[in-house]
């Protein structure tokens, strides 16, 4: 094998939407187009979830994570949890 598994790792964050921006987004849906505030919010949330997942993998001694996936769930009105998860592995390196 070129690697060995150290186990499942995950990182998550919960983000809420500013009420004023939420109302603007609500009306924007009628006109169409990208909801840039939401896109930027979700991008920041994905980065934070990924950072936390990597930190957990590093604690296990991993130097890579395979099979990374993201999921989003709504935990309350206007609040979403973003979860990044995968398998922490230690890659064997050729000398």
Let me know the average pLDDT: 84
Largest sheet: 3 strands, antiparallel
Please state the structural category. alpha+beta
The largest beta-sheet arranges its strands as 1-3-2
The separation of the N and C termini measures 16 Å
Q: If classified by CATH, what would the architecture be?
A: 2-Layer Sandwich
Which stretches of 5+ consecutive residues score pLDDT under 50?
none
Specify the overall morphology.
elongated
Rg, rounded, reads 17 Å
The sequence of SSEs as H and E is EHHEE
- In the CATH hierarchy, the third-tier topology is known as Translation Initiation Factor IF3
Helix content: 25-40%
Q: How would you characterize this protein structure?
A:
With 95 residues, this protein is α+β, with helices and mostly antiparallel strands. The protein has one domain: Translation Initiation Factor IF3 (2-Layer Sandwich), CATH 3.30.110. Helix content is 39%, strand content 42%. Strands 1-3-2 form a 3-stranded antiparallel sheet. Strand 2 (64-76) and strand 3 (79-91) form a beta hairpin. The protein is elongated, with a radius of gyration of 17 Å. The two termini are 16 Å apart. The mean pLDDT is 84.
Which helices and strands, and how do they pair?
Layout: E1 3-16, H1 19-31, H2 36-59, E2 64-76, E3 79-91
Antiparallel strand pairs: 1-3, 2-3
TL;DR?
With 95 residues, the chain is of the alpha+beta class. Helices cover 39% and strands 42% of the residues.
């Amino acid at each position: 094998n070129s690697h060995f598994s150290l186990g499942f790792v995950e990182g998550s964050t919960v983000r809420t939407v500013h009420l004023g921006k939420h109302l603007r987004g609500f009306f924007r849906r009628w006109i169409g187009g990208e909801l840039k505030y939401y896109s930027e919010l979700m991008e920041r949330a994905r980065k934070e979830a990924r950072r936390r997942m990597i930190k957990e993998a590093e604690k296990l001694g991993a130097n890579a994570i395979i099979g990374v996936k993201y999921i989003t769930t709504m935990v309350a009105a206007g609040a979403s949890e973003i979860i990044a998860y995968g398998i922490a592995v230690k890659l064997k390196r050729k000398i």
